[in-house]
Amino acid sequence: MSIVIRDVREHELDSVLALNNNAGLAILPLDAAKIRRFYETAEYFRIAERDGNMAGFLVGYGSDSEHDSCNFAWFQQRYPSFFYIDRIVVASRRRGGGVGRAFYADAQSYAELRYPQMACEVFLDHGADAALLFHGSFGFREVGQNTMPEVDVRASMLLKDLCSYGWVKETYGENLPDVPWVGHTRRPLAARPTGT
């Protein structure tokens, strides 16, 4: 019954796409090209497994990325350095079972070593109370709203200060220790071993 969070593997992209497109109105649909772009460019692209089955995924970008999301651009225009959660999807049968909390703990552990803030959005037009409560319980606060012009969806723009970042930056600068749990930035696709 444990939850395992690990980097996505290339052969799993079709499963990730299906999971995304079955998630309901709170998540925008994707196509294979967009999933491939996440795989090639996302700083953080991890899946959760529970009982050996894919239970969800989370995609994140650092503020200096060239990500093509209008919500990401909204944060870039207002904040100099942040880690952006583009999307988190949890399989419907796994919701309420701790997968989302495990993802946010893992993403925060990664982000707080590199960024002073973590950003995300919650769509407001499709019954957002549970998602807003979930994010509020993790310390996120609304810093504005944005209407996504291409889909006419209004989003609550959420931000969280990462209190460990200052100490890590002062102590280690850009030279984080080479230990497995630090989870160094994903390598570009060309640098990954074949079959991973």
Automatic annotation (TrEMBL):
Which molecular function terms from Gene Ontology are attached? acyltransferase activity
Q: Which Gene3D superfamilies match?
A: 3.40.630.30
EC class (word): transferase
Occurrences of domain N-acetyltransferase (ranges) = 3-160
Pfam families given for it?
Answer: Acetyltransf_1
Keyword Transferase assigned = yes
- Mind telling me what this protein is named? GNAT family N-acetyltransferase
The EC code for this enzyme is: 2.3.1.-
Q: Does the keyword Acyltransferase apply?
A: yes
Under InterPro entries, the record lists: Acyl_CoA_acyltransferase, GNAT_dom, UCP028520
Which keywords are on file for this protein? Acyltransferase, Transferase
